[in-house]
Amino acid sequence: MNNMGDVNHTADCGVKYYTMDEIKSRNVSKEAWVVIHDKVYDITGFLEEHPGGEEVLLEQAGSVATESFEDVGHSTDAREMLTQYYIGELHMDDRKKGSTTEALITTSADGSSTWTTWLIPAIAAVVVGVMYRYYMLEHKSS
């Protein structure tokens, strides 16, 4: 958090709202903020711990990183870990009008991931089973 005259607004529920201009200024290793799904995260303390290296995070610092975050396919654990760096919300004036499409993209991506998680191994098991039966029948008849 920062008390240097930020242009943030606090809603009645205590959530702080940050403008994109303010977030853009937080793009150095001493202070790195990103926006993911309209939520603002101060990831400064995580830079050295990030499994993909701090360079990847510094490339995204000071910007909206939703697409990059989703493209990597972060695990549920990584998403839960992200919550500890939450500091507020992106100001309403800076949010994209098409945020509903982002929600649809992430939902469909999660759904397809679930299908491939069990469908590909199931098909492989059936193919191996059929090949084994065919092999065993062929050797019994000889």
UniProtKB/TrEMBL annotation:
It comes from Dallia pectoralis (Alaska blackfish). This is Uncharacterized protein. It comes from the Eukaryota.
